[in-house]
Amino acid sequence: QLQASGGGLVQAGGSLKLSCAASGRTFSSYTMGWFRQAPGKEHEFVAAIRWSGGSTVYTDSVKGRFTISKDNAKNTVYLHMNSLKPEDTAVYYCAAGSNMIITTMTLKERYHSWGQGTLVTVSS
Predict the structure, then answer these.
(1) CA torsion sign, 8 to 14 to 11 to 96?
(2) Helix, strand or coil for residue 87?
């Protein structure tokens, strides 16, 4: 089970940290990802991290602003979001997926377990 939290309302240029707590199983053999869905749009890949080894991949629009990290002891994955823009407004979802080559983990189809979303609203 995945539980996402940390969303909220923030002004443009601000920061938020999303958390995704995993329970019920060990996710050490998975890749964890963050996706987002803006109103009227499809799910968009944001970032992913391999639980084992820590390799990461980001979508271009968040590179340099967002950082994905993990805490093995807490079985939790984080998405640190800085320099937020109004276009970052979306419902953010965390997901667990196959432990494949990290650059292939941008595809929604690679993920099999999804948490509920957490809403991030960035005001201009």
Answers:
(1) negative
(2) helix
Q: Tokens at residue 11, please?
A: 């002004």
- Give the neighbor-by-neighbor strand order of the sheet with 2-5: 2-5, 16-22, 76-81, 66-71
Tokens of 22: 């995993």
- Report pLDDT digits (tens) over 78-118: 999 999 999 999 999 999 998 888 989 999 999 999 999 99
Measured CA to CA, the distance from residue 77 to residue 33 in angstroms comes to: 9
- Residue 113: is it exposed, middle or buried by C-beta count within 10 angstroms (0-12/13-18/19+)? middle
Model confidence at 52, pLDDT cuts 50, 70, 90, reads confident
Confidence (pLDDT) at 58? 98
* Alpha carbons 49 and 96: distance in angstroms, whole number: 10
Quickly tell me which residue has 């329970």 as its tokens: 23
Reading the block at residue 112, the tokens are: 């099999």
Beta carbons within 10 angstroms of residue 108's beta carbon = 16
Nearest to 92 by CA among 24, 59, 45: 45
